[in-house]
Amino acid sequence: MKKAPIEASLLLVDDDPSIIQVLSRILSDYTVVRFATSGADALRLSREERPDLILLDAQMGDMSGLQVCESLKTDASLADIPVIFVSSLQESELEVAVLEMGAVDFIRKPFNAAQVTARVNMQLKLKRLADDLRQLSRVDGLTGLPDERAFDETLRRELLRAAEAKQSLSLVLLDVDFFRSFEALYGRKAADACLVQLGDALRRTLARPGDYAARLDGDRFALVLPDTPAEAGTALANRVLHAIEALDIAHQGSSVSRHITCSAGLGSFDGGADAAPDAAAVGQALLAAAGSALSQARRAGHAQVGVAAPPAE
């Protein structure tokens, strides 16, 4: 009976295609096995789609494995990917050097198939445990939505993906109208219950698999909407505001309604540019644009969506 494939994405990096072939056969039980024959390609593929684990040759022509590993470990978005070095060299100094750099293991050529599989499985198991712990630490304890740190990582990743696919992306910031008055009138417990209901409404309204909601702080939430130009993003943001109004949470302290409403601001990114973006800088600009649009919505009377002007060409 054929074994079920193991859910994991591996990246094999070696400038010798015959080594790639050997490792591919040994690791054929994994669902995704990609390969790179140069350090530059390894870094590019890692940024395009993060692998769960990298097997990296220590000696290559364009960049050494040590240089590739150093680049991975100094990139915050890639630093936690486990790296197993492979080498035909027997010097213990090399093994010590790569482990000190942050590699998780070292396998010598020629390969023992059972040993390679066992070591890869062990590192994948450790990574899953680390991912589970990280996920627990990046979830808002009140609403169960991702927190601000998780949001920052997701926004950066989705901006890079949008640029690669030449797609648009919309970012929506929203917060509760007159929330301080609500808390003063009804108390902290009611305010927390209100935020929990808002989080649930966001989950229900964002039906597409790629859409993402997070709680940033206090009563502020963020939505990341991949492959969504400004017009479609505005329509979705309005649906979110209507869903929140439909909760019918009483708010006698609001000057615009007798129940809870929210204001929202939208900024959009056009992924059609030829140059790869600086995701951190673009993300900050997008947050600033959405924040400005949110302020615009408040000035215009609350309970509506403000839309930032598109960036100048």
Helix/strand order, N-terminal first: EHEHEHEHEHHEHHEEHEHE
CATH architecture of the largest domain: 2-Layer Sandwich
Radius of gyration: 24 Å
In quaternary terms, these chains amount to single chain
H/I helix tally = 10
Q: Which homologous superfamily in CATH is the superfamily of the largest domain?
A: Reverse transcriptase/Diguanylate cyclase domain
Secondary structure: helix percent: 40-55%
Distance between the termini: 59 Å
Largest sheet: 5 strands, parallel
Which band does the percent of strand residues land in? Answer: 15-25%
Mean pLDDT: 91
Give the strand line-up of the largest sheet. 2-1-3-4-5
The count of DSSP E runs of length 2 or more, i.e. the number of strands, is 10
Low-confidence stretches: none
CATH topology of the largest domain: Alpha-Beta Plaits
Number of domain units: 2
Structural class by sheet pairing and helices: alpha/beta
Name of the level-1 CATH class of the largest domain:
Alpha Beta
Instruction: Tell me, briefly, the overall form.
Output: elongated
Key attributes of the depicted protein:
single chain; 313 residues; alpha/beta; Rossmann fold; Alpha-Beta Plaits; 2 domains; 10 strands; 46% helix; 20% strand
Structure, briefly:
With 313 residues, this protein is an alpha/beta fold. 46% of the residues lie in helices and 20% in strands.
Write the layout of secondary structure elements.
Blueprint: E1 6-13, H1 17-26, E2 30-36, H2 39-48, E3 53-57, H3 65-73, E4 83-87, H4 92-101, E5 105-108, H5 113-137, H6 148-165, E6 168-176, H7 179-186, H8 188-205, E7 212-217, E8 220-226, H9 230-245, E9 262-270, H10 279-299, E10 305-307
Parallel strand pairs: 1-2, 1-3, 3-4, 4-5, 9-10
Antiparallel strand pairs: 6-8, 6-9, 7-8
Helix pairs in contact: 2-3, 6-10, 7-8, 8-9
